[in-house]
Batch of 2 targets.
Target 1
Amino acid sequence: MSHGRSTRLIVALDTKDTAQAVSWREQVAGPACMVKLGLEFTYACGLDAVREAAGGSPLFLDLKLHDIPNTVASAIGSLAALRPAMLTIHASGGRAMIAAARKAIDETFPADARPLLLAVTVLTSMDEAALHETGVEGSVVAQVLRLGALAMDSGADGLVCSSHEIAPLRAALGDAPVLVVPGIRPAGSALGDQKRVMTPAQASAAGADWIVVGRPITRAADPAAAAAAIAAELETALS
Ligand SMILES: O=c1ccn([C@@H]2O[C@H](COP(=O)(O)O)[C@@H](O)[C@H]2O)c(=O)[nH]1
C-alpha cells in the first residue's frame, strides 16, 4: 500500500580509514542521497577527515550525543563547521538535553543551513530482553513511543527508530517527525548485531523517510551494485 512518502537511501561509511570512506562514497554516489559518518570513523580519523570523506555529499553526522545539556550544546557548536544535514542525540538524555541541543542548533547555524536534529529512541540492535536489562519494563514499541513523544515535544525534528515502530509513531505523532531508519537488511543479508530489521521495500512500505544501510553495501563484493539494487527496491516499493 502506498502512503505517498518517498524513502531515500543513506549509506553508513563505517570504517577507520579515510581513503576507504572516500572510495565507498564515490562508489555509491548515484543511489545514495546522503552519507553517514559516525563514531567509528570520527574517533579514528577526526573531524577534518569527516569533511574529506563526505566530499560534496550531504552529511548525516551520527555521533549520538548524550551528556549534560551544557556539554551537548557546546559539542554541537564544535561540530557546526562541518555543516551536517542531520545530527543525532540520544532521546534518553531527557527534555533539558534535547532542548539545549535545539537551542544550540538554532543559535549556531545559519537559518538556511540548520541540520535536522534527530533523537535516537531505542537502538535497532536491542530486542525486548535487552531493553528490560536496562531497567525499562514494557515493550520496545512503548519505549520508542515514550521517547519519541518526549523528543518531538522538546524540539527534535525527527527520530531514529526501527521499521517496526514507524506505524505506531505515525499514529501517535502524525506526519511531522522525520523518521530515519537503520536496521535494514535486503533479503538474504546477514543480520549481524541488528535485531529489529526489515528489508528496504518493507521499510519503504511502512513509511520510512530515510533508510540507513551500512554493511550490506560496504561489505558487498560490489558496493555500487548493492547500493543500486537497494535504490531500485525502494523505487519498486513506491510504485
Ligand atoms: O538504532 C540505531 C542507530 C544507529 N544505527 C547506525 O546505523 C548503521 C547501520 O549499519 P549496518 O551495517 O547496516 O547495520 C550503523 O552505522 C549504526 O551505527 C543503527 O544501526 N541503529
Target 2
Amino acid sequence: MTDVLAVADHRRGELRDVSYESITAGRQLADETGGDLHIAVISGTVDDFAAKLNRDGVDTIHTVSHGEEFNHDVYSQAITQLYDELAPQYVLTPNSVNGLDYAPAIANELDLPVVTDTVDLDNDGETLVATREMYGGKVETTTELEGDAVITIRGAEWPAAEGTGDATIEAFDADIDEDAIGSTVNGFEEVGGGDVDISEADLLVSVGRGIEEEENLDLIRDLADALGATLSSSRPIVDNGWLPKNRQVGQSGKVVTPDVYIAIGISGAVQHVAGMKGSDTIVAINTDPNAPIMDIADYAIVDDLFDVVPELIDEFDG
Ligand SMILES: Cc1cc2nc3c(=O)[nH]c(=O)nc-3n(C[C@H](O)[C@H](O)[C@H](O)COP(=O)(O)OP(=O)(O)OC[C@H]3O[C@@H](n4cnc5c(N)ncnc54)[C@H](O)[C@@H]3O)c2cc1C
C-alpha cells in the first residue's frame, strides 16, 4: 500500500489551483497501490481551506493552524512531523515558489530523494516513474524511484479534482519550534501591473510579436474590453517593456489555465506553450498556417490580425 501526503498551496487567503491538481495526482498515485490520500493544509484559514479541499478522492485532511502566510520553517517542521506520524511513501508538493522552497529541505531532513517539476507519475506497485521535461520542453526524461520520495508537481499538468468529498478533517498538533523560525512574510509587493493575476482569469486575450508596435496594443486592449477578457502576452512583449512582467505567459512567466485562450500573433514556442497548454479552448490568430501554435489550437484563424481583430471587436462590442 502506498499512502500519499500532498501539501496544499495558498497565498494571500486563496488556495492555488495546483492544490486541487495535486489531489488528482495524489489520488492516481495512491490508487495504483490501494493507498490513502492525505492532504496537509498549513497556515492561514485552515478550516475554510480544508472545506474547499474536501473533494472527491481525498481520505484525510490534516490542518496545521500557525500564522497566516507561507513560512519555510513552519512548513518544513509541520510536514516532517506529519511524515513521521503518517508514514506516507510519497510527499507531493507543488512546484511553486513555496513548494520549491521547502521540498529540498524536508527531503534533506527526512533523508529522502527529491524529484522536482514532474509532469507525469506512474507507479507499477514497486517502481515510481517520474517524468520531467528538459530543455524548455523539447526533451522528456524519466526518473525511476523505489521507496519513499518527495516529489514536486508542475501546475496545470493534472486536472483539478472536482466534486464534494467525504474526507475526515483533523487538526494536527504540530510542535513548531518558534526559536527555529528564521524569517516571516510581512507583506506583499506586486511587480508592476497592479493586482492582475492572469493565472486566475477565465478568458485571456494574449498578444505576441505579431503586433509589431507598442501603439498597436490598443487594438488588443479593445478586444479584451469587448470580450471582458484579461490581457496577457508572450515574452517579447514584456521584454520590450510594453506590458508588465505579471502579464507574461510561459515557462519564465505564469502558467495559465483559462476556459478560453486567444493567442494573437504568437508563434507558439515551447517556452510559451509550457504556460498555456492547459487552457480548455485555444484560439490562434496567425498569418502562418504552419506556426507551432496551430498544433495545439482548437480553432485557428489564418489571417492578418490587423484585419481579424477589428472585426471581432465589431462583433462583440456592445
Ligand atoms: C529560457 C527561456 C525562457 C523563455 N520563456 C518564455 C516565456 O515564459 N514566455 C514566452 O512567451 N516566451 C518565452 N521564451 C521565448 C520564446 O522562445 C519565444 O521567443 C517567444 O515565445 C516568441 O514570442 P512570439 O510568439 O510573440 O514571437 P514570434 O515567435 O516572433 O512569433 C510572432 C508570430 O506572429 C505571427 N504574425 C506576424 N505578423 C502577424 C499578423 N499581422 N497577423 C497575425 N499573425 C502575425 C507570426 O507568423 C509569428 O507566428 C523563452 C525563451 C527562453 C530561451
